[in-house]
Amino acid sequence: MPKTTIIMGNKNASLEVTMVSNSFCNPCAKAHQFLEEWIEKGVDFKLNIVYTFSMADDDQQKLFFIHLMQLQKEGLNIEMALKDWYSSDYQKLAVWKDKHPVKNKAVDKLLLLEQVNWCKLNEIKGTPTFYINGNEIPNGYSLKELKYVLMNLDN
């Protein structure tokens, strides 16, 4: 996993779900809402979120991720920030950043490049892409089916 992975849920859980996401992807928004709901219901799992983006200076996905990474680094409420992002107004980056300010805006480009390279090495072709305990879930699984997988693995 890249060092920049966003982590939610129980960081020590034996069940680990990794979601590769795109901050401007509607199916990703639904997946985030689904997984947040399961965290709130107390399903015991660690959620790793890896975002896709390019290294272009003006890439909005990258700018979103940099801010999210800083929120996590500063120990701020990342769950609320993601919930706000994936609400009906989730594509308004400036408004979201104002609502969830960070103190430090410095960026380590090598960490960003590590995340971009992780996605390339794992041949991420679309989002969302899911892994459970390091194993990629085949295309075609719905969130509803993933729910039953999580319920069975959690017991």
UniProtKB/TrEMBL annotation:
Gene3D superfamilies: Glutaredoxin. InterPro entries: Thiol:disulfide_interchange, Thioredoxin-like_fold, Thioredoxin-like_sf. It comes from the Bacteria. Residues 3-148 form the Thioredoxin-like fold domain. Signal peptide: none annotated. This is Thioredoxin domain-containing protein. It comes from Pedobacter alpinus.
